[in-house]
Write a structure and sequence with these properties.
By secondary structure, this protein is α+β, with helices and mostly antiparallel strands. Helix content is 47%, strand content 24%.
């Protein structure tokens, strides 16, 4: 056995630990292979769960950081031009804060509203193409 520095607890190397588990299993009269499989099974699941938890944490942080950037800027709104599709607008500004759709007999009118603080951007689509835009953004 060896002592880990800075810790009063004694730890055995893996080989000694396995030997001690086999000896214990023999004394108890049970199958040592079952005991070892059980021991490694618990360690394996513990590793899997901790790895999955770390992965979820990393994904959450990445997702949070990617969503935190300001997409409603004057420069981005200026990129939106008449005739663009909804997908093109959403690729520039992201999904709208709210939307309203009116199905008229001949045409379909959709209004996207983006709100960021006190600023508002309104984009009107006619038949799924940008017809007009209005913005309260300042330089």
């Amino acid at each position: 056995m060896r002592q880990i520095k800075g810790n009063d607890e004694y730890r055995m190397p893996n080989e000694e630990r396995l030997r001690s588990m086999r000896t214990f299993a023999k004394k108890q009269g049970s199958s040592s292979s079952f005991e070892l499989r059980h021991f490694f099974g618990i360690r394996l699941w513990s590793f899997v769960i901790s790895s999955a938890t770390r992965l979820m944490l990393v994904l959450f942080v990445v997702f949070s950081l990617s969503c935190s950037g300001k997409r409603i800027t004057k420069a981005n709104v200026d990129q939106v031009m008449e005739g663009m599709s909804k997908k093109q607008v959403e690729s520039i500004l992201g999904p709208p804060t709210s939307l309203r759709t009116e199905d008229l007999v001949i045409t379909k009118k959709t209004t996207y509203v983006y709100r960021q603080g006190k600023d508002t951007v309104t984009i009107v689509f006619k038949d799924d193409k940008v017809q007009s835009k209005d913005s309260t953004l300042s330089d």
